[in-house]
Amino acid sequence: MSHVENFTCIGCPIGCPLQLTHEGNEIIEIHGNECNRGAKYARQEFIDPRRALSTTVAIEGARWKRLPVKVTGPIPKDRVMEAARIIHGLSVKAPVSRGQILLTALLGDPDVQVVATRTMVLSGSPSSLVDNAPSLP
Amino acid sequence: MVGRYDVIIIGGGVIGCAIAHELSRFNIDVALLEKHAEVGFGTSKTNSGIVHPGHDTGLDTLKGRLVVHGNALFDSLATELHFGFRRIGEINVAIAESDLPILERMKKQGEDKGVPGLEMWDQDRLRREEPNLSPALIGALYAPSAGVINPYEFTFALIENAVRNGVALFVDSPVQSIVPDGDGLCVTTPRDVINGRFVLNCAGIASDQIEGLLGFHSFSIQPRKGEEYMLDKRLKGLVRRLVFPVPTPITKGTLIIPTFDGTLMVGPTVRNVEDREDFSTTAQGAEDVFSFVRRLCTAISPRDVITEFAGLRAVSDTNDFVIGPTRVKGFLNVAGIQSPGLTCAPSIAEYVRDILRTEGLSLVEKSNFKVDVKAPTRFALLHPDEQEIRARENPLFARMICRCEGVTEAEIHEAIDHGARTLDGIKFRNRTGMGRCQGGFCTSRCMEILARRLGIPIHEVTKRGGESWIVTPITTPEEE
Amino acid sequence: MLGRLENNYDVVVVGGGPAGLAAALGARDSGAGRVVVVDREPDAGGILLQCIHSGFGLHYFKEELTGPEYAERFIEKAIDHDIDVVSGAYISGVGLDSDGTHHVRVMHDGHGITTVRSQSVVLTMGCRERTRGSVRIPGDRPSGVLTAGLAQRFVNLMGLLPGKRVAILGSGDIGLIMARRLVLEGCEVVGVFELMPFSNGLNRNVVQCLNDFGIQLHLSTTVVGIHGRERLERITVAPVDQNLQPDMSMSRDVACDTLLLSIGLIPENELSQALGVELDVVTSGPRVSSTMETSLPGMFACGNVLHVHDLVDYVTEEALLTGRFAGEYAQGIRRPKDNIRIVTGNNVRYCVPHTLSPGREHTLYMRCREPMKNCVLTIGDLVQKSLSFVVPAEMIMFRIKPDILDRFHGDALRIDIHSAGGET
């Protein structure tokens, strides 16, 4: 019994509508793509769709309340919300450097860490008068 | 908290605040109860801000009898209280020949009442004086005594001076019951029980409901909605004066209003509504306003709208002010204050004072009545050298908060010092958030300052009190 | 170095986002000695600081970075190149003096109000967002109606959600990105409503922000009413016809407590207008010559304040070039006035710069009016370039080599995009 999965290619702004016909896990054919990128994309989305993830975690002691973070490798699409929940459970204290690893082996994958994407220094406590902490160490 | 007062004023709109201010001159105890988070948050903040000359009404109504004196009182009040007031003049324009005799009648009516300076203009004069109006207009009646104010600035100035002179202000205090009690009345709010010898019903839209708490109805309120449309600053100076069409029995019509700050506003519409909380603007309202205004001035189009809002006029079934004692001793109505209500606020205050005196309240003037409320700083209007000096004295003048209107952090604090507790409270005190970006830049900054000053978490800061929260905290997974 | 404002500079850059930082680098590169970037936020980086998603730098760094990473790399470069980066400072005015120098009025947190003198100025103030007022949605005025960019600041910098049940008007990238962001933070996104029959965001964002999360995209639909006494309670939406007019008979209510508006960006030219800089009504940004100079001598402009970009990499490139010219100007170099005027022809909505000179390489940035597949970009009869597709949402960049203009002898050069017809 063959089934068809539909994807929109994200390789370029044309956004070809792609149809991937498969029987179980075996790909029978792909059409709709105007170039090879579309075929590759459809294949990847069918076999192992992955996503990048960036979000923020709570940070204490910095000028802002949130530190932006990202995962260092794409994670399975259907585990994105799970990953977000894990990351949101982290909390960090300033100072933090860009690239600093906050969590290793996200979702058990040794190749995927969670890293800070911004440097945030320790700040004085906020007051309505000038808070003149320097931007970078 | 239980307190005893000589006079309790229900309603902190411009009328309640004007009366509070007038009564604060005397050695009596006055309380003002306002149901919203801040004064002026009802109809007053949506008022057009016009101080009318009064030639469009006769002497057959109370509103017609109070308006000329009210208008005249604005000069001394503005000097005393330092709120912005400018007599920019008004023209009632004639669109058709049949309008001209109506204008002539209005001129005579005004002169009979003592409205100063009324002049008929022919087409040439009109074109010279207001070159951007439609050349199809054939003439106008000019009334130089018309002025403009910011109605909320006026309301704040009134209450601030009143409080300085001893008036007790209760906000977030809707009245739940009023009961005769001995030689006065007992008024209950969610947090307080207050006794007063006299109670003044200045509750605007709700004034018939307030009277109803005592079990009788001497009038009823028909809310009448008016939508207004604020236009982009680039149209500043398009017209110099207030532009009115010829009035009808129901309404003064759709106007072109150069507000006190110079930005143009067009409106209001006129539509009776049933829902007393219906402050919605409507597509039909916009259509009505712009299709009419184009006949007055073709340069105005909906493209220039930066914001729109609506207010509800408290129109009584008598179509006049309802001011005076009632069958309940000590309970006085000051209700049905439709246009020219704002203009009459000072004269209504004197009128009510005199009624109270007649009703037996002894009014002895205070020897130490204070009038030193300073005008709010308008940093953006100061000379650059003056700005630098201020910033040296107070570094918070060097922190821009509202970049569209040029408002600094020092002024935000001033607004909070003077009673602002919400984003709208700040907005109405110094224009923060009223400019082109409509709060895009200043909102988060104002919220941070309000949270710090009020000692509340930032997610408890509201737009205008009640349920108007703005943000809610991100919760961690455990909290969910 | 950081935080100090001197009295005199060669180049002052107004705004420390990606355009400002790159312009400053370009100015230093050209040999200008004293260059300062002035930014009103506590930290430089501009809007990138709240754009925590990746998608930046693929062209410039050959890596995909998040906004904050891209910003920090440039701040580090700026510091390495001896550029002053002054944050917490708001420029309230700029003026041209009779001796040709500029004075810049700065409101500097903790330092009062000062005037700085500069030989040249680069305007890089970026954009502001279109508001409810400018699209005139009737109804109540509750809290809970805000722009997507303000919501992004609340969420990503301040740890605050704009609400819990969110509708989004506008399917440009900002709206799509925020849809995903809010779902990741536990909100319900009830739908994205788009006036046009297509989204003008990247397909990648439609897929990864909406489809992945089961968020419905309602095309040819707009918001026609906002309801709520104090806080938003519901919106009314209606489909629109081919003239973009709503069919009110088909309107329906959507319960929500938050409405994000992602309905367009407007270059922030209040300062430019106050100076009397000539603006292009199509871009809403200054008209600039091929040296990125505005109509006022010594005043240059680049980045989103000049025209709304979609790729920060192009902003960087445009700004590096602009900075170089501003730096040259500061050192007394004056280029001859451009003598070729660009005329926008078929399917070209705008092009910057607005004028050119022969004898130099130029980079043109333009946008088409309508999507077209298999088309040809023609520049006079000097250039014919095949393009497999053009869409308004994707800026077209084109480099003109010096020798090409040498063949041109007219004063108006017309740019067109035509369908290639039967050709593939």
Concise description?
Chain B is 30% helix and 22% strand. Chain B is of the alpha+beta class and 480 residues long.
What do these coordinates show?
The complex is a heterotrimer of chains A (137), B (480) and C (424). In chain A, strand 1 and strand 2 (17-23) form a beta hairpin. Chain A is of the alpha+beta class and 137 residues long. The radius of gyration of chain A is 21 Å and the shape is elongated. In chain A, 28% of the residues are buried. Helix content of chain A is 15%, strand content 33%. Chain A contains two helices and ten strands. Chain B is an alpha+beta fold and 480 residues long. The longest helix of chain B has 20 residues, at 62-81. In chain C, strand 12 (165-169), helix 5 (173-184) and strand 13 (188-193) form a beta-alpha-beta unit. The longest helix of chain C is centred in the last third of the chain and has 19 residues, at 312-330. At the B-C interface, helix 7, strand 18, helix 9 and strand 23 of B face strand 7, strand 8, helix 3, helix 4 and strand 11 of C.
Largest sheet of chain B: 8 strands, mixed
- Which structural class should the secondary elements of chain C be placed in? alpha/beta
Counting H and I runs of at least 4 residues, what is the number of helices of chain B? 12
Shape of chain C: globular
Largest pleated sheet of chain C: 7 strands, mixed
Give the largest chain-chain interface (CB within 8 Å): B-C, 54 and 49 residues
Q: What gap, in angstroms, lies between the N and C termini of chain C?
A: 56 Å
Provide key terms for this protein.
heterotrimer, B: 480 residues, alpha+beta, eight-stranded mixed beta sheet, five-stranded antiparallel beta sheet, C: 424 residues, alpha/beta, five-stranded parallel beta sheet
